[in-house]
Amino acid sequence: MGAPDIVVICVYFLAIFGIGLYVGRRQESLESYALGNRSFPWWAILCSIIAAEISAATFLGTPGEGFALRNYTYVQLGIGTILGRIIVGKLFLKPYYDYKVVSIYEYLEKRFGITTRRWASATFLLSRVLASGTRLYFAGILLVVAYLAMTGQESAGQAETVVIYILALTFITIATAVYTTLGGLKAVVWTDVLQASVLAISILTTIGFLFFSIMGQGSFSDAWNYIIATISDTSQNPYGRENLQPWAVFDWGTTGRGFLEDVRNILGSEYTLWSAVLGATFITMATMGTDQDMVQRMLAAKDNKSGTRAVIISGLLDVPIVLVFLTCGMLTFVYFVHEGITPPKEQGQVFPWFIIHCLPAGVRGLLVAGLLATAMGSLSTALNALATTATKDWYVDVFRPQATQQQKLRAVRVFTAFFAVLLIVVGAVTSWVVVMNPSIRILPIALGIFGYTYGSLLGVFLLGMLTKRRGSDAGNVLAMLTGFAVVALLEVGNQCFDWLPIAFPWRVTIGTLATFSVGLLFPTRRSA
After folding, report:
1. Whose CA is closest to 446, among 382, 494, 385?
2. Residue 275 gets which letter from DSSP?
3. d(Cα 408, Cα 423) in Å, to the nearest integer?
4. Is the model's pLDDT at 443 over the cut of 60?
5. Smallest Cα–Cα separation from 325: which of 100, 60, 503?
6. Which end of the chain is more exposed for a tag (fewer CB within 10 A), N or C?
7. 343: DSSP letter
8. For 233-279, where are the alpha helices, taking DSSP H only?
9. How far apart are CA 443 and CA 23, in angstroms?
10. Alpha helices in 112-157 (DSSP H)
11. 255 and 83 in contact (C-beta within 8 Å)?
C-alpha cells in the first residue's frame, strides 16, 4: 500500500480513538457504561445497529457471494429481517423497558426464575464468544492479502499464513478493546456512527470505480450492455456453482421431483423464499431480540418508541445495503473478465484480492478503513455486551451483590479485556481451521454458528412473552437442552448418514420450535 493509503488509515484510527475517548469520559456507574444513561437519539442507535450488523464477514463474504452466484437470491433473506425486526420492536422491547433491565436476561428471572436467567446468560456468553471470535478471522483476510502483496509473494505456507492472521486479529482486537474499555457504550455508539459513514463511502466509491473502469472510453450504454452480457454468461463459472442462475432474485426451492424432494431441497437450501419468510424471521428475532449485543444499544435509546423506530428502520435499510454489496461482487466479476484476471482459488479472497491489487491508492486505503470499521464496529459491541452480561448476571448477582459502583465499573472493564483475549483465541483457532480447509465458505460459518444455541434462547423468550402461565425454571432448562439437541442431532445425522440436510437459516427455527414446544409442557409455578 502507498502513502495515500497509510494516511487515510491513520486518519481513520485517529478519529476513532478521538471520538471514543472523548464521548466516553466520566463513567459513573455500570448503567452509564452499559447503556450510556439511555440518552441516545434513535438515528445514532440506527447507525450503531448497522455498523455492528455489517461485520467483516458481510463486508467480504457478501461480495464473494455476488461474484460466485451472480444473482440476488441472498436478498430474499431481507424479507425475514424486516418481519423479525417488526416483531422485536413490537413484542420484545416494551417488557425490557418496563422492567428497566441492564442485562436482558434479567427479564427471564422476573418471568420464570433465576435458573432460567443463568442458563440463558451462559448460552449467550458462549455463543457470542464463538461467533464473534469466528468473525475475527474474516477481518484478517484483507491484511493477509496485503502482506503477500507487499512482500511480493503469490502465496505463503500454511504456518506462515496462520501467524499473519493471528497478528492481524490481535492488533484489531486490542485497538478496539482500548476505546471500548475506557468509553463504554457511548464510545461504541458514536464511533459506530463514524464507522457506518466510512463503510457507506468506501463501498459506493468502489462501485463507481468498477463501473467506470468497465466503461473505459466507451459510452454508458455500451458498458451497461457489456455488464448484462457478462453476468448472464453461464459458461464462465470459476467456482463451479451448480445450476447457476444469473440475475435471479426469488427461488422457491422446488425441484419438480415430488413433494418430499422439494421439502428436502428447501430445508437444505440457504436462499429460498421459504428460508426468507420463515428461517430469516426466526434468525432475526433471535439475534435482534435475545442477544444482549444487539438489544443493549436499543435499550440505550431515550424510550421504547425510539428503540423500536431504530430497529425497524434498520431492517428496511438492510435490503438496499445487501443489494449494494451483492452488486459490488457482481461488478467485480465483470471487471475480472474485462481485465482478463484469474480469480483467486478461494472465493473468500476475491474481494480482498481486488482491493489490494486493483484499486488505486487512496481508494484502497478507504476500503481498508471500511473493512476495519466493520470489524471494529461489530467487535466493540460484542465486547461491551459480553462484559456487561458477565458483570451484571454473574459478578454482581452471584458473587458480589453489595459491590459499589466503582467496583462494578472496574469489573466490567476487566471483563472487557478478558473477553478480548478469548476472542483472539477463538479467532486464531478459526484461522487455523480455514487455512487448513480452504474450501470452507465464508457466510455460512459466520451465520450458521448461532443456529445451534440461539433457537434455545429465542424459544424460552417467546415462551415468556407469548404465554402467562406456561414455563418453569426446571422445564425451561430441559426445553433449552432439547432445542440444542434436536439441531445438533439433525446436523450430525446428515453429516454421518445423509439424513435430511438442514441449511443454516433453518437451524434457529427448528431449535426455537423444539424449545417452545417442550417449555409449554410445564406450568409456571409462581405469578409472572
Report:
1. 382
2. I
3. 22
4. no
5. 60
6. C
7. P
8. 259-268, 273-274
9. 34
10. 114-151
11. no
CA distances from 521 to 119, 239, 478, 484, 516 (A): 19, 48, 11, 17, 9
Distances (CA, A) of 60 to 46, 430, 483: 22, 16, 31
**Rounded Cα distance, 227 and 355, in Å:** 20
Q: Which amino acid is at 53?
A: E
Instruction: Give the residue from 144, 93, 5 showing the smallest Cα distance to 307.
Output: 93
Q: Name every residue whose Cβ is closer than 8 Å to that of residue 144 and which is 6 or more positions away in sequence.
A: 156, 161, 164, 165, 168, 352
User: Residue 526 has what DSSP assignment?
Assistant: S
Cell of 475: 422445564
Q: What is the pLDDT of residue 219?
A: 87
What is the rounded CA–CA span in Å between residue 472 and residue 179?
Answer: 41
384: CB partners within 8 A, 6+ apart:
34, 180, 184, 185, 188, 296, 416
Q: Give the dihedral sign, CA 22/28/34/40.
A: negative
Assigned C-alpha cell, 365: 486505503
Q: Could you tell me the three cell numbers for 40?
A: 441516545
Cα four-point dihedral sign 387, 392, 393, 395? positive
Per DSSP, the three-state class of 470 is strand
Q: DSSP assignment of 76-117, as one string? A: GHHHHHHHHHHHIIIIIHHHHHHTT-SSTTHHHHHHT-HHHH
Grid coordinates belonging to 27: 463513567
The one-character DSSP state at 435 is H
End-to-end Cα spacing for the chain: 60
d(CA 112, CA 81): 28
470 φ, ψ (degrees, to nearest 5): -120, 145
Question: Would you state the cell numbers that stand for residue 28, as one nine-digit string?
Answer: 459513573
| Backbone dihedral angles phi then psi of residue 40, each to the nearest 5 degrees | -85, 140
Count Cβ atoms within 10 A of the Cβ of residue 264 and give its class: 0-12 exposed, 13-18 middle, 19 or more buried: middle
Say yes or no to pLDDT of 528 above 50.
no
Beta bridge partners of 470: 523
Specify which residues 301 forms β-bridges with.
40
Give the three cell numbers for residue 408: 462494578
- CA 68 from centre of chain: 21
Q: Which residues pair with 40 in a beta bridge?
A: 301
- % helix / strand / coil in the chain, to the nearest 5? 80, 0, 20
Rounded Cα–Cα distance for residues 138 and 414 (Å): 26
pLDDT for 197-229, tens place per residue? 888 888 899 999 999 999 887 888 989 999 999
Report the alpha-carbon distance of residue 104 to residue 120 in Å, rounded: 10
Number of Cβ atoms within 10 Å of the Cβ of 6: 13
| DSSP class of 521 | T
Q: What is the mean pLDDT of residues 281-307?
A: 90
Closest listed residue to residue 71, CA positions, set 316, 280, 255, 322: 322
523: which strand partners? 470
Count of beta carbons in the 10 Å neighbourhood of residue 469:
9
How does pLDDT run across 14-39, given as a tens digit for each residue?
888 888 778 766 666 777 777 777 88
DSSP-assigned letters across all residues of 300-321: TBSSHHHHHHHHHHHHHHHHHH
